[in-house]
Amino acid sequence: MNNQTYFYKFLEPLSKELAFVARELENSIFSSPRTMLTHARAFVENILQQVIQAEKLPNEQWTNLKERLDLLNDNGYLTPEIRDALHHVRQIGNKAAHDTRRFRYSEALLSWEAIYTIVKWYVEVYGPVDLIVPEYVDPSPQEKTYDISELEERLKVLEEMLRQALLPEPKEPGQQQSAIIPVNIPPVPEQPGFTTIRSLTYKGQTLDIPYFLRDAFLLPQRFSKSETFLIRLGAEQQARIMSELPSDLEGLHKHVKRYTEKNDENLFEELKRYIAEEKVRRQLLLDRPGELFFFYKADYIVVTEELASIPFTIDEFTGSPSLLKQLKEDQIDTVGQLPNELVILAKYENVGVGTVEKVFEQLKGKQGILTSV
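Above: the chain's sequence. Below: its structure in token form.
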């Protein structure tokens, strides 16, 4: 499977929610068997709920997977093969939810096969006649996998969508249905790390925070208009990392003296730029694994071995004697010893962003010369 397709894509015409949950289960087989086994129960339970609705059986009194399974079995709707497959997914899923032992890939694969048996039965009996179930294919390990917490977040959102897709339509004109979470899950899954983990708001505006930035350190030098504001907030143990930011930035300035709503507004706007830049960097690292980069604002340099070996001397880097002296004091003698985030260099005394930008442009020039040789 790759980012363009997944095994249960054929389910999308029947139920996008069901198809997308299956997609995330497939993503988790080799990255977290426990996650796959635990959430497979919600997937098959939703199928049983749809069967109960199709057969017009009373559904409200059956509150869990076993009760729904027994209802359909007692009424003769399940063959022994389907009943056993459902029990397998349920029982191993219950163990994964409570047992602390390490679960194996082979256990996740057995559950995945049982899901195929269940889906094939459901589509052939209750699905459109023109919907063809492909032959079973073993999933393959993914090169780029999601962190377990990110997988859990994706599945939680999708399972809520799956649950809400089964809610009855309002019976009376003007009667409201239960509140639905406004979530848009794209047909092509995001790269690992890009799942929205939370959102920040400011005066009606919303900013989504991707998973890979949930605990990112908010380096004040990355925020030109808000640098001092962030330093002051950090001294009050506020806004040092992304997860410390409140969901609503309005009023953040009240944590420190002599700051106003304008500072909240500036920070929100700079967070937009920061997140956009970080997404570009993240994608670059995913697309070019194993390579070293220097970053400055929205730009970057690929650090080759030749560039990394260039010494910090006045002859090589003109116009920044104070920076060179302080780098030497910190035993940073060559380019390769620099931090990946070059704006950190602005921490040095009498070194501003302008000096850092000058060094970055010199590095770009040297890389260009080395590349052309």
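Residues 280 and 333 are 29 Å apart (CA to CA).
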